[in-house]
Design a protein that fits this description.
The structure is a single chain. The N and C termini lie far apart (about 95 Å). By secondary structure, the protein is mainly α. It is elongated, with a radius of gyration of 35 Å. The model has no long low-confidence stretch (mean pLDDT about 85). The protein has 3 helices and no strands. The longest helix is centred in the middle third of the chain and has 86 residues.
Length: about 150
């Protein structure tokens, strides 16, 4: 009974990953474009004190900038958004595929092979180097150093 419940929950979770609702209000929930794309009229165009244009020109410039930025973005996203979404989806699917089917198996294979080499290397070190350094330490163990200050 408990297994059937967990299996049902797993199927629901898998289904939810592909059919989840999209938040149309907060479209950047992870804030990946927080500091990149925030460009307003005041960030681009500014008149220093003493060199002001006519008020009507300033207001029209503000409105023109804001509306043209808004509609150009909407037009570009309408024309190029879906094709670029397909390209990026394909690219990330390709990266995932390569990682799952090529990179991880290669790394696992390398780790298995290097473990064998590591054992052989360790055996050689213990066979040849350990006796040599043990004998060298016994020779050097009787060496005494005395420091004298001559005046």
């Amino acid at each position: 009974m408990a297994e059937e419940q967990t299996e049902l929950e797993e199927r629901i979770i898998i289904k939810d990953q592909h059919t989840k609702e999209i938040d149309l209000v907060n479209r950047d929930p992870k804030h990946i474009n927080e500091d990149v794309v925030k460009v307003d009229f005041e960030d681009v165009i500014a008149e220093p004190v003493g060199t002001y244009s006519f008020d009507g020109v300033w207001k029209t410039s503000y409105t023109t900038f804001t509306v043209s930025k808004y509609w150009c973005y909407r037009l570009l996203s309408a024309v190029l958004g879906i094709p670029l979404a397909v390209v990026w989806g394909f690219l990330f699917a390709l990266i995932s595929f390569c990682h799952i089917w090529a990179v991880v198996p290669c790394i696992k294979s390398y780790l298995i092979e290097i473990q064998c080499v590591s054992r052989i290397y360790s055996l050689c070190i213990h066979t040849f180097c350990d006796p040599f350094f043990e004998a060298l330490s016994k020779i050097c163990s009787n060496v005494r150093v005395a420091l004298r200050k001559e005046t």
